[in-house]
Amino acid sequence: MNNYSQYVGIIAGILTGVSLLPQLVKIIKEKKANSISFGMLGVLLAGLCVWIVYGALKKDYPIIVTNSFSLLTNIVIVVLTIKYKDGP
Q1: Residue 59 and residue 79: Cα distance in Å, rounded?
Q2: Most buried residue among 4, 17, 28, 53 by CB atoms closer than 10 A?
Q3: How many CA atoms does the CB half-sphere of 60 hold within 13 Å?
Q4: pLDDT in tens, the chain (88 residues)
Q5: Rounded-to-10 torsion of CA 13, 17, 20, 25
Q6: How far is CA 34 from CA 6, 50, 67, 70, in A?
Q7: What angle do CA 19, 64, 70 make, to 5 degrees?
Q8: How far apart are the C-alpha atoms of 77 and 22, rounded to whole Å?
Q9: 19 backbone dihedrals φ, ψ, rounded to 5°
Q10: CB within 8 A of 60, min separation 6: which ones?
Q11: Is the pTM of this model over 0.70?
């Protein structure tokens, strides 16, 4: 049963990790990020950092890897949001 729960965790982490990829692609294509909330991104980044620490404490590599990918994606979104805040 433990392997089954690990697979569920991996799938959940992958889906969470890729959830903001469409937003990232949209920002890159349009070079515009006027409606992105820094508050939401800040809370999300903090939560992802805590998940990574939690994964490290439990030595749970799926948690560490998937949340690290999410963190990287969100950092890129923050950088591009700052760069394109007022459009091209």
Answers
A1: 30
A2: 17
A3: 19
A4: 567 888 888 888 889 888 889 989 998 998 888 878 888 889 999 999 999 999 999 999 889 999 999 999 999 999 998 888 776 5
A5: -140
A6: 38, 28, 26, 21
A7: 25
A8: 11
A9: -60, -30
A10: 9, 54
A11: yes
Phi and psi at 32, nearest 5°, equal: -150, 135
Domains of the chain (ranges; CATH) run: 2-83 (1.20.1280.290)
Residue 37: CA count within 13 A, CB half-sphere: 4
